[in-house]
């Protein structure tokens, strides 16, 4: 009996080692914070979230200080200057603030977290399905403001400590650099967003803007995509569990 027990333990241990928890386990994708520069380790309530970030106060990945800082021009968070070609129109700027609130505060973007090899963060969002109206209004409100680049994630002149347009990048309207809403929302942060074909309220796309009085609509969206993704994953643990049960029966007999 003792040898049988040992054998059982050894095989369980090795099977366990060979089958680490699937990274795409559904619960791993829900209610999580990304491992990046300013994110909390875990989401939780933050009663005092500032201004445009307040929709996330019931459950957030950002600290209050982060929510305050990100409303400032050239915030200390990334020393990133939105006004690199003159001041953005206020109606345009509010979309960048909202985009940053979503990035820093949302605990509902787990299904789109990917590992990256960057000095300032270990993870990023990729292809978050942004509701088409949120992208459309961002583009419409910014088309008359100015910028000098289509991918804001790379290629700046950082010698002064703040991003400046590189010498050969001239300032033109957003409309010049981003001819369509998708060019803006998908190009800006190197495909962090993918413009969804779905509309706000559909439960199938992430809303950058929402009214907390009706709850956070993105919780349901994350659940939907997490479930879809875990169904696409093969259930590798099935054979392993069957084996475990058989061995237990054998041991108990
Ligand atoms: C914000 O506060 C948290 C703890 O409350 C701290 O760890 C973090 O460094 C602060 N961040 C900024 C940008 O000041
Ligand atoms: C970068 O900006 C500095 C001024 O801040 C300027 O002297 C330098 O020529 C710029 N370099 C490039 C490659 O744009
Ligand atoms: C853009 O994202 C892709 C992954 O989709 C990555 O391979 C590439 O290095 C990124 N490029 C920049 C400029 O950050
Ligand atoms: C997106 O929506 C348009 C118009 O509602 C429709 O014609 C098209 O088939 C949709 N595409 C997808 C991929 O669902």
UniProtKB/TrEMBL annotation:
Pfam families: Folate_rec. InterPro entries: Folate_rcpt, Folate_rcpt-like. GO terms for cellular component: external side of plasma membrane. Residues 1-17 form the signal peptide. GO terms for biological process: cell adhesion; fusion of sperm to egg plasma membrane involved in single fertilization; sperm-egg recognition. Keywords: Disulfide bond, Signal. GO terms for molecular function: signaling receptor activity. Residues 32-207 form the Folate receptor-like domain. Transmembrane segments: none annotated. The keyword Signal applies. Belongs to the folate receptor family. This is Folate receptor alpha-like. The lineage of its organism: Eukaryota, Metazoa, Chordata, Craniata, Vertebrata. The gene is LOC102834994.
